[in-house]
Design brief:
The chain is of the alpha/beta class. Helices cover 35% and strands 22% of the residues. The protein has helices spanning 50-64, 81-93, 109-115, 130-137, 142-153, 172-182, 201-206, 221-232; strands at 2-11, 19-24, 46-48, 69-73, 98-102, 120-124, 158-164, 188-195, 238-240. Bound molecules: iron/sulfur cluster.
């Protein structure tokens, strides 16, 4: 059984085509800007079986077309890798396209087994500099970079995602370092720049937490343009989402 926080039908944001998106409960990071802060707590969520996921996926199969399918996001779905494996195996046996949205910080035998059923990974890079990554996510980026290297080794198609937070992750040098680090990764199909927003801030209040980025400015067009220009020099496709 996986523990599910919520489910989104007809999603167009998390992976290729039209997707059924499962947001799993629990995350090992605590990012300052997390838009789904209510998914961070490791406890909770609705216990959901592979059969239940399959039933919903079959209901929505007509909408998926050639590119769409099912995305597992969160939270951090790989925190539940062991429970996720039978779900992915069941879906893959029925031919569904599977996408995994991850912060890349968990890499063990269960994760490696789970990845055998995955078609594409959305890998969130919070920052290239460990000290800034720690400020943003509460932990360094070493394991995420190890995961990126592993995904390259197994030739897993990857879309990188980078949230551009003014004052935190928009340093010109850090953006160049992101490009330099991954420029030679042939498995990276695309890089998505995600503008910073405060949309999840109310959830912090609801949970009795402090939203530490309160009042932090959103991106200017110049900041987004600069990041786009720099990263376009390293990646074959860059989009601003
Ligand atoms: S990794 Fe994702 S789900 Fe986890 S705290 Fe950060 S933004 Fe939220």
């Amino acid at each position: 059984m996986i523990r599910v926080h919520s489910v989104e039908s007809l999603g167009t944001y998390d992976g290729p085509g039209i997707r059924l998106v499962y947001f799993l409960q629990g995350c090992n990071f605590k990012c300052l800007y997390c838009a789904n802060a209510d998914t961070i707590e490791l406890k909770g969520g609705k216990a959901t079986s592979a059969e239940e996921v399959l039933k919903m996926a079959e209901n929505q199969r007509p909408f998926f077309g050639k590119k769409g399918g099912i995305t597992f996001s969160g939270g951090e779905p790989l925190v539940q890798a062991k429970a996720l494996v039978p779900v992915l195996r069941t879906l893959k046996a029925q031919g569904f396209h599977i996408c995994l949205d991850t912060n890349g910080s968990v890499l063990n035998d269960d994760v490696k087994e789970a990845l055998e059923f995955v078609d594409i990974v959305l890998l969130d890079i919070k920052h290239m500099h460990p000290e800034w990554h720690r400020k943003i996510a509460g932990q360094g980026n070493e394991r995420t970079l190890e995961m990126a290297a592993y995904l390259q080794e197994i030739k897993m198609p990857v879309w990188l995602r980078y949230v551009l937070v003014p004052g935190y992750s928009n340093q010109t040098e850090a953006i160049h370092d992101l490009g330099k680090h991954f420029a030679a990764y042939e498995n990276i199909e695309k890089l998505e720049i995600q503008p910073y927003h405060e949309l999840g801030a109310h959830k912090y209040e609801h949970m009795g937490w402090t939203y530490q980025l309160k009042g932090n400015p959103v991106n200017t067009l110049e900041q987004l343009d600069e990041a786009y220009e720099i990263l376009s020099g390293y990646f074959k496709e860059v989009v601003v989402n």
